[in-house]
TrEMBL record:
Keyword Hydrolase among record annotations: yes
Alphabetic keyword roster: Hydrolase
Family annotation (InterPro entries): Bact_Sporulation_Assoc (IPR051922), Big_4 (IPR011081), Cell_wall-bd_2 (IPR007253)
Name listed for the protein in its UniProt record: Cwp66 homolog/N-acetylmuramoyl-L-alanine amidase
EC main group: hydrolase
Molecular functions (GO terms): N-acetylmuramoyl-L-alanine amidase activity
The enzyme's E.C. designation: 3.5.1.28
Limits of the Bacterial Ig-like domain: 337-393, 410-467
Species of origin: Clostridium cochlearium
Length: 484
């Protein structure tokens, strides 16, 4: 009997899900997490997909929008940091006519200003006029070539603290770094594999004091000939498209939030580019997927606690089979502990945005948490309770905050001892607290010496945390009172 390819794929998927389910059953009862959820931004084409991404990130009015050519990435790869600066969505258009989905978004958002990216050969005057007809001010950022356009975009960002240098002839590394560059307010600068225009070299040299210049990709993307001309440069990423994609994400993982991960097709740039402006809002990475997930991508997804996967495009972009597999690859939250914090009265307190949990593989991982309260009045001592929710975890996390009263008054201390007897300064003192209670508080005594073999009166001063006066201890040393 002969099975067609679709039936075989479905059979493989059923077997895969059965194995995963069996593993979950026998792993133990500590894991209470639900499967990773997915959300798909799926339009009839890339233009509607970009519009749906826009609706997700910009539900109300927006002063700014950025419009790029939906079929030509060469001028568009540098725009994500500008989108972040202006809190603007990235929308796509045809070169000759303003796309209807983009037009609708400009109307919905009541946009006042639009950056059109590229020269008139990339986005025509007709498109620009169509935007202006809506009463929108248009600023065109388009040079004689992709390099000049990138420099015009970079100038709008001001002097960057960091720069990402990408290959100008392929989009893979550009869309991988885009949300990260936007998050970190980097400029994205293109170069050729074996050559660099004088204008680009001049720009990089003028920014040689930048904190860091990241050269994205290995020697197959940007040769050492070009790399060696770039000041203060380090390479990020090597290998094939998918390994470079994950290398880039891992290089900045401490600044990313993996609660939500975007997945886009590696076969085209448009979905990933339009999503880069949204992904940076939540510090989320964009993962590239081909017709099948690479082993590098699978291993990455298995190493993170990911609550939601946002898929960009329809089945032709990221297949539904891939979507189902993505639900079961990430780690889950297996266990977490409640939290206790102590602060002094009048100290400000905000619950931590992340906590450390035990993942289903036994490792400790950091995850985001949403609290029922974000502020508390700490002007009054007491005990306050917060309840936190971790996405994808079925139990709440409790945080107990103890607001300690301040020391209000500490009486002077008088002690007596005899000559040659050892006297230990007390480690704690009794304080009357701001809530009327009394407590024993630690004290640190100032450096001082006394001649214990001589009688006399000795004074010591100490410091108690949060007490604005010195603690005074008077020690009277007397001769032994001997009876004849």
């Amino acid at each position: 009997m002969k099975y067609n390819k679709d039936k075989i794929n479905i059979f493989k998927l059923v077997v895969f899900l059965f194995i995963i389910s069996a593993i979950s059953i026998f792993h133990g009862n500590n894991v209470e997490a639900a499967e990773t959820t997915t959300k798909r931004f799926n339009g009839q084409n890339r233009y509607e997909t970009a519009a749906k991404v826009c609706e997700e990130g910009w539900s109300e009015e927006s002063d700014w929008a950025i419009v790029v050519n939906g079929d030509n990435f060469v001028d568009a790869l540098s725009v994500a940091p500008l989108a972040k600066k202006q809190n603007a969505p990235i929308l796509l258009t045809n070169s000759k006519v303003l796309n209807v989905y983009t037009s609708m978004q400009l109307n919905r958002l009541k946009v006042k200003n639009v950056y059109v990216i590229g020269g008139k050969g990339v986005i025509s005057q007709n498109v620009e006029d169509g935007i202006k007809a809506k009463g929108i001010k248009v600023t065109r950022l388009g040079g004689k070539d992709r390099y000049d356009t990138a420099l015009q975009i970079a100038k709008k960002l001001g002097r960057p603290k960091q720069i990402a240098v990408i290959n100008s002839t392929s989009f893979y590394d550009g869309v991988s770094i885009a949300p990260i560059a936007a998050l970190k307010e980097m400029a994205i600068i293109p170069v050729g594999k074996n050559d660099m225009p004088n204008s680009i070299e001049k720009f990089l040299r003028s920014n040689r004091r930048a904190e860091q210049i990241y050269v994205i990709g290995g020697q197959d993307q940007i040769s050492n000939k070009v790399f060696n001309k770039i000041p203060n440069a380090i390479r990020v990423g090597s290998g094939d498209v998918y390994k470079r994609n994950i290398d880039i994400i891992n290089a900045f993982q401490n600044e990313l939030d993996f609660g939500n991960v975007y997945v886009a097709s590696s076969r085209d740039f448009a979905d990933a580019l339009s999503a880069s402006a949204l992904a940076c809002k939540s510090a989320s990475p964009i993962v590239l997927a081909g017709s099948n997930l690479s082993n590098t991508t699978k291993n990455f997804m298995r190493s993170k606690i990911i609550n939601n996967v946002s898929i960009l495009g329809g089945n032709a972009s990221v297949s539904y089979n891939t979507e189902q597999i993505l639900k079961y690859l990430p780690l889950k939250v297996a266990d977490t502990e409640n939290i206790r914090k102590e602060i002094w009265q009048n100290e400000s307190f905000t619950p931590p945005p992340t906590i450390v949990v035990t993942a289903s593989n036994g490792n400790m991982e950091e995850v985001s948490v949403t609290w029922n309260l974000i502020k508390v009045d700490t002007t009054k001592p007491g005990i306050y309770s917060f309840t936190g929710k971790i996405d994808g975890y079925n139990r709440n996390v409790d945080l107990v905050l103890v607001v300690k009263p301040l020391p209000d008054k500490i009486e002077d201390i008088n002690e007596e001892t005899n000559v040659n007897e050892r006297f230990e300064l007390p480690e704690t003192v009794t304080a009357k607290m701001s809530d009327g209670s009394t407590s024993r508080l630690p004290v640190i005594w100032d450096y001082g010496t006394k001649q214990s073999n001589k009688s006399g009166v000795y004074v010591f001063y100490g410091t108690v945390e949060k007490y604005d006066k010195k603690v005074k201890l008077t020690l009277t040393v007397t001769e032994h009172n001997t009876t004849p």
